[in-house]
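Priority: medium. Attachment 1 of 2:
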């Protein structure tokens, strides 16, 4: 019997209990929003699963969604539970057996949380070796509401991630801003950076085989601080598809679909406000 299927008499004291056979499936998703400069993350637990949120400068928000269905067992005894935690410490605990980098290093995981003020408890098991971790939690703050709704979306593209990975490798990542052009007319979708040696751009025609859906209703060009978007590249590198959306204010939504080794799907989402300085310059 594995850790993910074991029952304990003490389980009744916990508000949240989640069990999964492979902790790597969680650590891979959380790694996509991990930022050394922003250590604290807010965890929202509901019957649908876990949402882990990291924010920066009130201009960008990253959300990792761990649906209840990716766990072998998921129990929450309250309508919701919310707390803040060090994402770096959590990631260190999840990868304590090596993070699945070596063959067979895929520890089972049990997550327990007893409610407000209680630590987050992690129990990991690999090849009969058990490790317990207790992580201090803090009272959560109110997270940003970007008010990004589907009703206000102006342009939306869904494409295979490999296409965007190549583009980011060709652009000048030393640039201060990334300009995103979306249009029903050519060039349809263009990414532009402005560096010391000049500008660089990548175009994506709507007819490309790598673009699965193209829904652009009007031409829209916005600039975003590249320092805020760089962390999202980690999510891009482990994703298989990406959805790019902009609303009437120029706010950007990047949604990455990540497929785990067992075929389960998780999502990482980034919201980013347009660069106000660039707007003023224009």
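Attachment 2 of 2:
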């Amino acid at each position: 019997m594995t850790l993910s299927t074991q029952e304990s008499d003490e389980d009744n004291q916990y508000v949240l209990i989640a069990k999964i056979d492979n902790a790597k499936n969680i650590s891979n998703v959380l790694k996509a929003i991990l930022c050394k400069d922003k250590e604290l993350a807010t965890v929202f637990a509901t019957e649908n699963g876990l949402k882990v949120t990291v924010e920066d400068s009130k201009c960008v928000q990253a959300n990792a969604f761990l649906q209840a269905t990716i766990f072998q067992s998921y129990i929450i005894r309250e309508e919701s539970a919310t707390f803040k935690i060090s994402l770096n410490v959590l990631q260190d605990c999840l990868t304590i057996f090596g993070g699945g980098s070596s063959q067979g290093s895929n520890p089972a995981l049990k997550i327990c949380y007893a409610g407000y003020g209680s630590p987050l408890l992690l129990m990991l098991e690999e090849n009969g070796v058990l490790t317990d971790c207790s992580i201090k939690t803090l009272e959560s703050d109110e997270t940003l509401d970007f008010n990004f709704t589907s009703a206000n979306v102006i342009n939306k593209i869904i494409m295979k991630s490999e296409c965007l990975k190549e583009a980011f490798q060709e652009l000048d990542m030393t640039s201060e801003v990334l300009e995103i052009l979306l249009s029903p007319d050519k060039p349809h979708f263009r990414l532009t950076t402005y560096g010391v040696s000049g500008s660089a751009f990548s175009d994506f025609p709507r007819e490309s085989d790598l673009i699965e859906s193209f829904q652009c209703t009007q031409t829209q060009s916005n600039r975003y601080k590249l320092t805020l978007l760089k962390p999202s590249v980690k999510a891009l590198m482990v994703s298989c598809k990406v959805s790019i959306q902009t609303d009437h204010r120029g706010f950007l939504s990047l949604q990455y679909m990540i497929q785990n080794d067992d075929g389960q799907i998780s999502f990482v989402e980034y919201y980013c406000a347009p660069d106000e300085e660039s707007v003023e310059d224009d």
